[in-house]
Amino acid sequence: MNKERVEVEVIGFDPGYADIKESRRDKETGEIINRKYPSLVAKAPSAAKDMPLFEGDRYYMGEDALARSSEDIVELTDYMHLEKISPLFLWKTLKENNIDLDKLKYIVSGLSFSQITKGPDFLKRLSKFKVNNESFNFTGKILLAPQGVGAKYAIDYFYPDGPSTYLIIDIGLLTIDTVDVINNVVRPENVHGYRDEGIIRIARSLQDYIAEKFEEHVSLKEIKEILETKVYFLEGEEHDLSAIIEEYSRSYTEITLKTLKDRFSREFKKYRKIYFVGGGAHFIDKDVSKVIEVLPNPEYYNSIGNLLRGEQELASK
Question: How confident is the model over 245-292, as pLDDT tens digits?
Fold first, then answer.
């Protein structure tokens, strides 16, 4: 018996190098529902017929991929990798939520501003693709929002009485994106993206530590899981890495905040609020400055904002 399709008009989609975040609104309650899963894939043998077939290859995804050897895991470490595999993540989002595609009006996706020149290619990539020999065509239904700009919609939604001028700092795995909101307006020249400044710095340090101490190569995707659990399993033995992760995190926070304070000295001195969002916001010590606010569940602010932006677009029509 087929499960009843879920009627959704807009999906906020945030394909990150660490996690895929998605947001939708429950039709009955009006509640915003958020979910994330690791942006993790590994090549599967052709005999694995229950795994999705995408552009000639089968892939393990999520926990199935994490159980594979490090050499089989596909590392999403640059834009080209993300562009190639993002349609598969969108397919997973739609399939696992059992979305009624006939009712779907918009999918609003984020993309780092440091890669925004690739926007037309990314838009085209998500618009038409095929998985398991089933064709999907979302032409005219895909909207793109720079990372951080999506979060602006969510901040205004959750904090309508907040300041009208503030800075958003979005820390991802690979990038940091910043959005300077002045009098509730985002101008293009006030949006910036910085490559290789995300928590990849912590991940690389931890990767080197494990290689030296345990003589094991661990993929970045596995490192991301270790950062969350603070535990490394090897041959059935559990190794507590919380102390070394705390050390690397403290160093990252100090360096990153110094860089940001130098880069945005005016904002840190004059603004009432500097909002930190994205998964990397969990590593920021908000007590360093009174203007810093690390928002609750910061990794969802872009997907929620993308949902809200799509709803505004729908209402305007």
Answer: 999 998 998 999 999 999 999 999 999 999 999 999 998 887 878 899
What is each CA distance from 110 to 192, 197, 289, in whole angstroms?
Answer: 14, 18, 29
| pLDDT per position as a tens digit, 96-154 | 999 999 999 999 999 988 888 899 999 999 999 999 999 999 999 999 998 889 999 99
| Average pLDDT value for residue range 152-169 | 95
3-state secondary structure of 88: helix
C-alpha span between 244 and 212 (Å, rounded):
13
Q: List, as own/partner pairs, every contact residues 185-190 make where C-beta atoms lie below 8 angstroms and the sequence separation is at least 24, other chains included.
A: 186/149, 186/152
Tokens 């429950």 belong to which residue?
A: 26
Domain boundaries, the chain: 10-147+301-316
C-alpha distance from residue 249 to each of 149, 163, 194, 261, 281 (Å):
26, 30, 19, 18, 11
Q: Give the up-direction half-sphere exposure of residue 118: CA atoms within 13 A in the CB hemisphere.
A: 16
What pTM, to 2 d.p., does this model score? 0.91
Q: What CATH architecture is 10-147+301-316? A: 2-Layer Sandwich (3.30)
CA–CA distances in Å: residue 203 to residues 67, 232, 245, 278: 19, 13, 9, 16
Torsion of CA 182, 183, 185, 187, to 10 degrees: -30
Give SS3 for 121: helix
Give residue 90's identity as a one-letter amino acid code: L
For 17-65, the DSSP string reads: SSEEEEEEE-TTT--EEEEEEE--EEEE-TT-TTSPEETTEEEEETHHH
